[in-house]
Amino acid sequence: MPESIWKIQDIRKQVAVIDGIEAPTIVLKNARYLHSIFKKWLTGNIWILENRIIYVGQKMPLNLTETEVIDLEGKTVVPGYMEPHVHPFQLYNPHSFADFAAQTGTTTFIADNMTFMLSLPNKKAFAIIDQLKSLPFSFYWWVRFDSQTELDNEDALFTNKAILEWIDRPDTVVGGELTGWPRLLNGDDQMLYWIQCAKLKSKKIEGHFPGASERTLAKMKLFGTNGDHESMTVEEVERRILHGYAVTLRYSSIRPDLPELLKGILEKDLNIFDHLMMTTDGSTPGFHKDGVMDKCIQVALDAGVDPIDAYNMASYNVARYYNMEQLHGLVATGRFATLNILKDEYNPNPEGVLSKGVWLKRANEKVQSLQPIDWAKFGKLNISFDLEEDDFQFSMPIGIEMVNDVITKPYRINVQLNQEELSTSHDHSYLILIDRKGKWRVNTMLKGFATHVKGLATSYSNTGHIILIGKSIKDMKKAFYEVKKMNGGIALVENEEVIASIPLTIGGSLYNGPIEELIEKETALKSALKERGYHHSDAIYTLLFLQSTHLPYIRITPRGIFDVMKKQVMLPAVMR
């Protein structure tokens, strides 16, 4: 992170506080605080000037002119929490997620850039990121090396120029996640070149290796991977540590593995907590109703992890791994004044949140919202075409069967097709993927989604194209036109009545409003789907991953029905 944060005159002013020439803006007096290097709870005074910690120790400032002095006797101070692996586009947007997450103490994010890569040229994406940088929280970014699906224009999006521009940014700190890692094993030197370029700029490389063998892990380490977040058993944690990986433990809406992983680590008495981080891995909105990284810390405390290790996994370990401990993750001189004030270390949901010297929460109350940013560069999703009778032609022999929320397999279709409405006595549904500009479509059947969903349409998907699912062609059409009217979103229709909907007016993919509102709408949608036979755990992830070729075994993509294992199109897209 070779970026200059403070100008010369800022640093001179900060040093003048030590000499009593200048006064700090805030002093947190008698604070019991976590020193993450000593791994001890210490007591002292924390001086802050604007967005920086000026001093931590036993002394009080010589000059307290107009300084806000807060006595924290009986309270506990820890570094602001850091989310090391976040997908900030799960219906919510980065701004709304940060505003929401700050209220439970998470104020620094290492964030996926996939939506930017697929939706915007770099110049527009960087303009949005620069707006985010001006606000009192911290976003750092990944740079993706592949689209995670099958696109006809992937080479035009993931170019040398585009990737290297992301790598050159000081706030890009990691390459990946490497969902396209099989390409490396198959000889893709372009991806290997990007990895090397990122490494030369001191960026980390994040893997995505669910169920990987020791042989694969060894190969991927040689390719340059630094860390991985896909451990599902304690043995997989051990395997990654053995090969020198940093390991991020996951607690998400579809992979809530953290409690069992921590239980196994403690039972085996593995002294590895300095090399562990935790993540909610882009969970859908409702999962965050009771927190973000504070939720992970609470799970660790409940599992019996030492509190200092629990807090370090959500702060100092992240900062140290990403070479940003000079700014984050430590209550010490020179760092950002990003601190959480707790009742005690056993209650990680903070009473007060200070982010870059700005109070966002005090006495358990939200005291400041983040200033809005301009999302206009994403544009609106203007669906300019109508559906035709030919769009609902189904004559293929092979369909897609859901094994769980996100894993699918091929199945031989054995129901009568091209009916206006399918029976609710089985779980077969029509499935269509349509280009957002109306140029092509892919038709098939989906088994295992639901028994009674008549019509569902969504512009929220891996690529931003439109997905239609349902039993009734009439209700699928109605759902499509509801999404068209909203300029993007999700609509559930039954008997031509809208049962639930979520408007996604930022580019057709993101909700433009508070997460509290979004959680209500998402909860209503999920409840309605469950009542109609959706029996998996997270329908939003199902919609997102129907196109994602980093998961087995069969996907509906812009190129057609795609066999992930054989790397071939089974049924091509049809031009409209």
From TrEMBL:
Family: Belongs to the metallo-dependent hydrolases superfamily. Adenine deaminase family.
Stretches assigned to the Amidohydrolase-related domain: 76-359
Organism: Ureibacillus massiliensis 4400831 = CIP 108448 = CCUG 49529
GO MF annotation list: adenine deaminase activity
Uppermost EC category: hydrolase
Pfam families linked: Adenine_deam_C (PF13382), Amidohydro_1 (PF01979)
Protein name per Swiss-Prot or TrEMBL: adenine deaminase
Keyword terms of this UniProt record: Hydrolase
The reaction(s) this protein catalyses: adenine + H2O + H(+) = hypoxanthine + NH4(+)
Listed PANTHER family: ADENINE DEAMINASE YERA-RELATED (PTHR11113:SF6), N-ACETYLGLUCOSAMINE-6-PHOSPHATE DEACETYLASE (PTHR11113)
